[in-house]
Amino acid sequence: METVQALGKYELRGTLGRGAMGTVYDGWDTVIQRRVAIKTVPLPEHPDPETEEEIARFRREAQAAGRLTHPNIVAIYDYGETADIAYIVMEYVDGPTLKSLLDKRERFTLPDIRRVMDGLLAGLQFSHDRGVVHRDIKPANVMLNGERQAKIADFGIARIESSNMTQAGTVLGTPAYMSPEQFRGDPVDPRTDIYSSGVLLYQLLTGDRPFEGSVTSIMHKVLNVAPPAPSELSTLVPAVLDAVVLRAMAKRPEERFASAAAFAGAIGAALDAPPPQKGPDEAEATMVSPSRGGTPRAAPAPAAPAPAAVAPAPTPARKPIGAIVGGLVLLLLLAGGGTWWFVLRPPAQTPVTATAGGAAATGGAGTTGGGSAPTALPKAPASSPTRAPSGTAAPGPAGPSAATPPPAAPQSPVAARAPAPAPTPTPTPTPTPAPAPAPAPAPTTASSGVGTPAVPAPATPNLAATARSLAAAIGGTSCVLAHPTVGPDGGVTVDGFAGSNVAAGLHTQLVDRAGAVPLDWQVQTLHPVFCSALAVLRPVAPLAGAPDLGLRLRLAGGIAALHDGARILPRVIAPHFGGYLRVDYLGHDGSLVHLYPTVADPSQHFVAVPSRRLAPGSLLRLGDNGAGRPLWEVGPPYGTDMIIAVASSQPLLRTDDPANVQDSAAAYLRRLAAAIAAARARGEQVTATVLPVDTLPPAH
Fold it and tell me: Is the pTM of the predicted complex or chain greater than 0.90?
């Protein structure tokens, strides 16, 4: 894609964004003479059902948004395909996304919030009236034009009329903004967008999302916990808005507003309502705000602070067949003759949405549960993968149903004693004033001129120096894969991963070092069991400051999380230099499975999948159907695991591993670290990336 300069009548003048699914270009329509945004995705050389679904979803985005012509929806102008890419031509919006403003901690006034929500809900009402449910309303998909009017973008997972696009076992959406019915896998309707819009309104009012944490943690809270009222978190929020926000975020769809228009009307009525009259005592009282956290959010037990790191529970003796691993079940599908194959794509850059906002978001904080690494299951029928018997599962973590301590009783607000009224003064005759004395001469300064010295302007922070200081602090902290970058908005963003045992302390240290420079903390917290893997990859990972050589890793479809029974389908795009890949799955108990390459295992009917040289930018697909090819499926216990991918210009490990499944990752990671160091010493190219995998209980 770097060599493409035009698509039909459209000139490509620059890149607006790039991500795992596609690229967005700054384009120019040479016929109509207008600026446009062009969103592209690569077309595979050898289509398969899963890839065809991804392309069909892209076409549906054009279909869904193309039928919607409204001032508050980003307009779709054209759709086309070439031999190797598909593209959507859309309206160019000269303005930021809500996400970019919220990430900078920009606060919105109530009139600003009303204007944004009016535009958002007007666009949603228009799309709902025409049978289109967006299903991924979030700040990254709401853009603001030059007049600060909201425009809805990215209808990539929209549900059109009565169609059912949700694949079994997958989560479509962004967890922090998803509705309860989306987490349960239930059918969705316009009230799903009402819920997500309520979450967005909550964030605009308070500056924070109602629920944070890992995907598992967010799902539990969305299904079971009521968020604190917005007015409890910000004194600027009128209490009359609390009922409006919480109704939009009701757990049951029938308890929410019936339409986007009704939601907008309720917001307007609440903001137009006269403020409540204060009583005489209330007017002079000082209110002590209640602590954050509303019923039924549990208060932490004071006598038992959480340890900095939790050692994984000992794993019971491993059986050769039927073990279940950290959220991953290794399956075998025999489909009658054939051997391993994989697809190579022409060099292509990895894509992004038209709003430059990502759709997949996962959290890693609060990983729970223990597990063991995936092991092969017995020979499966040719028709479908075999599920592991539930009795073989290792003990799982305490789930959402585990008992939680009751919330601490809130402290009653304390009113300060009102001051005694001053005595009424007695009027006295007004005396005749004496002549005013002559004014004293104005003080002089060392230099003649204006007497009041000018206040010097504050010094502009040195962003580059700040970034170097933050990088030094990160480099001196173990269990971190992160790096600071200077943004165009005058701040510094820190993106990457950190162990839960060091994340909080590092964040505090970086905030102190940043001083007046805005710090955007985008670091995902991981279980400390992954610290060894982060240390191995740190010298060559772009997230730690190494050069970005184009290696990309994602799950098929760009989905955010996987429910029990869902297939795990890693997709790896080779770096710019091509070369050799190693892909491994790390369980959160320290166990490991080799996903690529694999060795032959006659007892499990595996064929060997040797490492072979991949062309630059080509696509490696793992977990697809094929005779003798292992399949991986989500199973209990659930939590956050990790896939790592390492690319090198020459093979890193000269000998094959003795087995596809190892009881411990420690020995392999030591060998991998030594191989990476040796390759770099020889001047070979090496790069690496990681992908946390959140696994969830069955969708009901």
Answer: no
